[in-house]
Please model this.
Amino acid sequence: MNRERGMALLTALILLALTTAIAAAITFDTGMALRRAQGSAAQEQALWVASGTEALAAEVLREQLAEQTDVIRPGQPWAAPLGPLEAIDGVIVEAQIEDMQARFNLNSLIDMEGKSDPAAREVFEQLLQVLEIEPQIAARMTDWIDADDEAQPGGAEESVYSALPVPYRPPNRPVTSISELLLLEGMDAERYARLAPFVSALPRDAAINLCSASGVLLDALSGERQWSRDPQGLERNRQRSCFPGRDAFRNTLGNPQRIERLERSVGLAERSMYFRVRTLASVGTAQFSLYSLLRHEGTSPGEPRLRVMQRQFSE
Model:
């Protein structure tokens, strides 16, 4: 009798354990399903709000371009941050427009025929030196996008990358994202973080806007360390007008041959047609970012039209 009671008790305990385990599994799966549903809903909500904020920021930029101003510079209304503001209950958004022609265009390292552009490469090497990054990265980036498979001095072509533990090939064509820098031989996250704010991946028709270029890039263009030493002074001068203007900057260079080479390779301008809208949407504790590349395609200064060239959404 005692044995039968013991078996019955053991059976009951086993059934209880199984029931508890099944109930816990159901509760866990239900909770995960709810969290996934909530996360999906929050992501969709954030994307819609971020897209609306992108349109609002683009309208601010469009109005600025419609004023027929001769220059594009940071002190103008388009450069002021938008928000943070509560778009709808529980959703906070903020946005910032950036002039992407204030950066060195990585695709200027090659000419229209896909061959290395020595003048652009020299500017990139000087930019790397100002940032205390090995200048050989310029040769490796050139090899990454040029049309041939012949390595530049200090560069790296397919033979280097195909020998890696996880092999891959250079694209041998212009890049659409600066993140491809991370694939270069000798590049790491720390170097990339230093370089990323000063470079872009745009079509070759994107000349450097001197009115909004950083002091670091101006130093790389001039070959002298003067502009980056006083970033506050540079910012103050740009609140009133374009500084340095194209003519003034050409005068500081002095060398007509160097000016001609820069104009032909990287370009020197006072206006821009490529901008990036960086939008941050916060839904509860979750944050979502939308990066939108816009191109000004107005048929005239009075009729600006902005086209979205690229979007990247992350969380």
User: Anything to note?
Assistant: Residues 110-197 form a domain with the Ribonucleotide Reductase Protein R1; domain 1 fold (CATH 1.10.40.60).
